[in-house]
Design a protein that fits this description.
Blueprint (H helix, E strand, L loop, with lengths): L3 E6 L5 H14 L4 E6 L9 E3 L5 E3 L1 E3 L5 H11 L4 E4 L7 H14 L3 E6 L9 H9 L2 E4 L12 E5 L5 E2 L13 E4 L1 H7 L7
Parallel strand pairs: 1-7, 1-8, 2-5, 2-6, 6-7
Antiparallel strand pairs: 3-4, 9-10, 9-11
Helix pairs in contact: 2-3, 3-4
EC number: 2.7.1.21
GO molecular function: ATP binding; thymidine kinase activity; zinc ion binding
Subcellular location: Cytoplasm
Length: 196
C-alpha cells in the first residue's frame, strides 16, 4: 500500500544521506526510484542531491507552482517507478504537498519526503506544516545539540557569530551559518532564557 512519508529534522542531521541510501536500496533490488529536489537549490549542482559526507545522485527538479501530481503521472507513464523521493521538502508549497498526497492515493506510488521541520526562528515551513498534517507516516532523523540532548531547533549566525532573528526564511547554502540545538539552548541563544 502506497503512503506519504515525511522524514524531518533540523540542519545537518543527514536527511539527504538517508534519502540517498534508501534510493540505493531500491536500485540494488532492481527497482527504479524517482528522485526530486528543489530547482533553486544548486548546492550539489543543478538537479543533484548531495550529502555533506560526499555522496550524491542526479535528480529531477520541482519549481514553485509546478503541478507535482501531473509530473509524477508523466513519470509513471514512462515506465515503472517503485518510489518517489523528494529532498528539501520544506520548500514545497502547501498545494504541492496535496498533489503528492493525491499521487499516493490515486497513482498508488509511495512518496518519501525529506526536509526541515522548522526554520531558524522556530517557525514551521509551509511545506513541512502541510506534510505534518497529511503524511501517513512521520519519522524523525535525529542529530544532537552540543550538550548531547536531541537537537530540534536551529539558529542562524552572522559572520561574527551573532545569532540572527530576522531575515528571509529560505537561505540556500551556508551550512556553516547554522547550528542545531536542543530547545533549551535555542531559547538561550535567542534570548528567551537566562543562562544557568
Amino acid at each position: 500500500m502506497a503512503k506519504l512519508y515525511f522524514h524531518y529534522s533540523t540542519m545537518n542531521a543527514g536527511k539527504s544521506t538517508v534519502l540517498l541510501q534508501a534510493a540505493h536500496n531500491y536500485e540494488e533490488r532492481g527497482m527504479q526510484p524517482y528522485l526530486l529536489t528543489a530547482q533553486f537549490d544548486r548546492r550539489a549542482g543543478d538537479g543533484r542531491i548531495g550529502s555533506r559526507i560526499g555522496i550524491g545522485k542526479d535528480a529531477d527538479t520541482y519549481a514553485p507552482g509546478e503541478d507535482l501530481f501531473a509530473k509524477l503521472e508523466t513519470r509513471l507513464n514512462v515506465g515503472p517507478c517503485a518510489c518517489v523521493f523528494v529532498d528539501e521538502a520544506q520548500f514545497l508549497e502547501a498545494e504541492q504537498v496535496w498533489q503528492l498526497a493525491r499521487a499516493v492515493d490515486d497513482l498508488r506510488v509511495p512518496v518519501m519526503c525529506f526536509g526541515l521541520r522548522v526554520d531558524f526562528r522556530g517557525q514551521l515551513f509551509p511545506g513541512s506544516a502541510t506534510l505534518l498534517a497529511l503524511a501517513d507516516e512521520m519519522r524523525e532523523v535525529r542529530t544532537i545539540c552540543y550538550c548531547g540532548k536531541k537537537a530540534t531547533m536551529v539558529v542562524r549566525m552572522d559572520q561574527d557569530g551573532e545569532v540572527l532573528m530576522d531575515g528571509a526564511q529560505v537561505q540556500i547554502g551556508g551550512n556553516e551559518t547554522y547550528v542545531s540545538l536542543c530547545r533549551v539552548h535555542w531559547r538561550e541563544a535567542v534570548g528567551d532564557r537566562a543562562k544557568p
